[in-house]
Amino acid sequence: MSAGTVIVTGGAGYIGSHTCKALANAGFMPVTIDNMIYGHEWAVKWGPLVKADLADSTALDAVFGSYRPLAVLHFAGFAYVGESVTAPEKYYRNNVAGTLNLLDAMLRHACRNIVFSSTCATYGIPTATPISEDHPQQPINPYGRSKLMVERILCDYERAHGVRHCALRYFNAAGADPGGEIGEDHTPETHLLPLIIEAALGGRPYVELFGTDYPTADGTAVRDYIHVADLADVHVRALAHLLAGGASAALNVGTGSGHSVREVVNAVQRVMRKSVPTRNAPRRPGDPPTLIADPRRATAVLGWQPRIPDLETIVSTAVRWHASRPGAPSGARPQVEIKCTT
Asked: What is the pLDDT along the chain (342 residues), one digit of tens a residue?
């Protein structure tokens, strides 16, 4: 018996599609709404796909009216930091105005639970690490500001209309479905791990190391890499929390430990048994030396902990996905067992 229907905006994207699989495994029927600008039809395997934009209120009403969802999981949003600086109007229109349209459709159809895909970019340059949810939110780019605006809108909609929410502030999503059914595929690709894998497979001449003079152990930036399946799991838990009447919350989602860019390169080299060419490059403006989550509140509120916390296993899932794609060189698959903690 189905646990109910859930609308997943952006469900044809990287994190959204992995979450649709987790929802289906938990007994829910995920209904994806995606405008397919960055989404992939092949990634929608566990429920219907509705090709629509959040700016289209008529389409939203049709979906809500047809499926009568228990809740919304909201991933739809543009997420390229550099682009947000040069085209802020695109980010505010899509990420903020699109969310307002979605929330108003929820009100019209008496749907009052939403899990929101937020980001650690709402914190800006951290003054202390690991970063807790109480750290000041001072984003330094329109992408981060658009996500913070939505967080504040959600609080206002709760006070005015009783819409409860969980805002999940991700750190660095990485890896691919351990079952190999779906994975990461962005155009353009900006995430570190797939760029390294592509260089190892010969698809690009080198990987640029943006900043080699940070005050870190090896001079490169340190980030908290969270496996995409663990992100999917925390969304299902946040949904269950809201459906059980739990209070709204803003929660960090990370492992609580960090790895430098060089450590990620070395992990890919170990898994693939291949050399990865690198090139030193200047720091990118606004890149902090270290971003590490304090995820204890998510554990306390949702009972959640990462099941794939070690870097090498995260890397191995990504390598298996990329090496299995059409055109990948033969013999590229790693020989690393994919382990999950219980």
From this structure: 568 999 999 999 999 999 999 999 999 999 999 999 999 999 999 999 999 999 999 999 999 999 999 999 999 999 989 899 999 999 999 999 999 999 999 999 999 999 999 999 999 999 999 999 999 999 999 999 999 999 999 999 999 999 999 999 999 999 999 999 999 987 888 889 999 999 999 999 999 999 999 999 999 999 999 999 999 999 999 999 999 999 999 999 999 999 999 999 999 999 999 999 999 999 988 788 999 999 999 999 999 999 998 999 999 999 999 888 755 544 444 444 434 443
**Amino acid at site 22:** A
CA angle 318, 320, 323 (to 5 degrees): 105
User: Are β-strands 49-51 and 71-74 bridged in parallel, bridged antiparallel, or unpaired?
Assistant: unpaired
Tokens encoding 7: 């609308």
**∠ CA 229-234-238 to the nearest 5 degrees?**
150
Spatial distance between the Cα atoms of 170 and 288, rounded to a whole number of angstroms:
16
Reference 6, options 33, 28, 34; nearest CA is: 28
Q: Which of 143, 157, 170, 214 is catalytic?
A: 143
Active site annotation includes 123: no
Q: What is the CA radius of gyration of the chain?
A: 19
As given in the structure block, the two tokens for residue 180 are 């190999």
